[in-house]
Amino acid sequence: MPDIVTVIRRKRDGHELSGTEIDWVIEAFTHGVVSDAQMSALAMAVWFRGMSRAETARWTTAMIDSGRRLDFSALGLRTVDKHSTGGVGDKITLPLAPLVAACGVAVPQLSGRGLGHTGGTLDKLEAIPGWNADLSTAEMAEILTDPAVGAVVCAASADLAPADRKLYALRDVTGTVESIPLIASSIMSKKIAEGTGALVLDVKVGSGAFMKELGEARELARTMVELGADEGLHTTALLTRMDSPLGRTAGNALEVREAVEVLAGGGPDDVVELTVALAREMLEAAGVDDVDPADRLRDGTAMDRWNAMIAAQGGDPSAPLPVATHTETVHADADGVLSELDAYAVGIAAWRLGAGRERQGQDVQPGAGVELHAVLGDRIRAGQPVATLHTDTPGRIPDALAALREGVRISDTAPARQPLVIERIRA
Ligand code: URA
């Protein structure tokens, strides 16, 4: 039987771990035989030395096998899911899941809560009065097969890839999150265990993303697409820009409001563009080519699905959304063009206002966040409102303001227009 100190030393010294070693480490860590300290050392060795394709694939399979694997194939439905590597103002799942369901493909999505400057889909949906993230597999199946709904977004149960759950919590506090094999195996173990029939990845690139550089985002996307293919899961990826926030809001209830605007046929252009691009990709992955999702947004069927999807999970889609008790508006101090609106700065500001959490398990403020009154490239006049900060804790405003100011620049020259969708990656 392998022993953990030898495994750590071998990875530290740049050797390739065997399949037996990987299976044993993941199993022993899941059951507490390998300690958190030992797994942290191994994660750091992986951070420095990386893992080969074979190691990453075996690591992913071992994490899937540490728990339960859902299987919706008996429902007789086409299913497809989308996963984003995380960005600021990324509320795309909210309009996307009902939109794809309205096009005839079921969406079973297990999502997470936010940590740090990127928001979590469950936190956003939990801003809707009554909405419940915790469903059993039978409840998921019932919603997926309901012809009036067909989309479900809920929390992953504790027995889905439990090794990843434990390892991710450790990586978060040991500086070992930003490793391509560890991120890829973490995301793909959960998505494969979730039992979707096809998967589309939205891999973010830029200041507000894990991957700041195009080359590393491309490598992450390729690794995940290959891991999906290895497990027989049809997986494609879009590389999309995350230098500025998506849309005009970052924060839970604020983002729900914007998602509903998109479903009503309005909303910011970039949110609409990415929602439709990902919907097209998902439909293609599911083998559907006779419907254009843009039509389903226009004709209101996606909005009907949204209302049904929220109600199916106990939410009241027509209830007023929570509003923060305090606001502060930031005004431009000069005439010019908004030449920088940094996603990371806006994400940190929203987080400091109470939209995100510092530790797992903390509550978030549903009404907190940043509302933008201008977007990159807009012409601005001195004194014009640029952003409004929302919070229930006014003492948080100065720190949030300081973060926001770091990321906003008004100058004489307009920034070069960059495409939102940069590249498509397939197996
Ligand atoms: N999201 C995950 O689920 N895992 C990672 O490692 C990074 C982002």
Automatic annotation (TrEMBL):
Residues covered by the Pyrimidine nucleoside phosphorylase C-terminal domain: 337-411
Q: Which Gene3D superfamilies match?
A: Nucleoside phosphorylase/phosphoribosyltransferase catalytic domain, Pyrimidine nucleoside phosphorylase-like, C-terminal domain, Transferase, Pyrimidine Nucleoside Phosphorylase, Chain C
| GO molecular function terms listed in the Swiss-Prot or TrEMBL record | 1,4-alpha-oligoglucan phosphorylase activity; thymidine phosphorylase activity
Top EC class for this record: transferase
Output the InterPro entries linked to this UniProt entry: Glycosyl_Trfase_fam3 (IPR000312), Glycosyl_Trfase_fam3_N_dom (IPR017459), Glycosyl_Trfase_fam3_N_dom_sf (IPR036320), Nuc_phospho_transferase (IPR035902), PYNP-like_C_sf (IPR036566), PYNP_C (IPR013102), Pyrmidine_PPas_bac/euk (IPR018090), Pyrmidine_PPase_CS (IPR017872)
| GO annotation, cellular component aspect | cytosol
**Entry-linked SUPFAM superfamilies:** Nucleoside phosphorylase/phosphoribosyltransferase catalytic domain (SSF52418), Nucleoside phosphorylase/phosphoribosyltransferase N-terminal domain (SSF47648), Pyrimidine nucleoside phosphorylase C-terminal domain (SSF54680)
What GO terms in the biological process aspect are recorded for it?
A: pyrimidine nucleobase metabolic process; pyrimidine nucleoside metabolic process
EC numbers: 2.4.2.2, 2.4.2.4
Keyword match Transferase = yes
Q: Which UniProt keywords are listed?
A: Glycosyltransferase, Transferase
Keyword Transferase in the entry? The reply is yes
Q: How does it assemble?
A: Homodimer.
As for family, the record states: Belongs to the thymidine/pyrimidine-nucleoside phosphorylase family.
The UniProt entry, under NCBIfam families, shows: PRK05820.1, Y_phosphoryl
Q: What protein name is recorded for this chain? A: Thymidine phosphorylase
Which organism's genome codes for this protein?
Answer: Rhodococcus gordoniae
State the encoding gene.
deoA
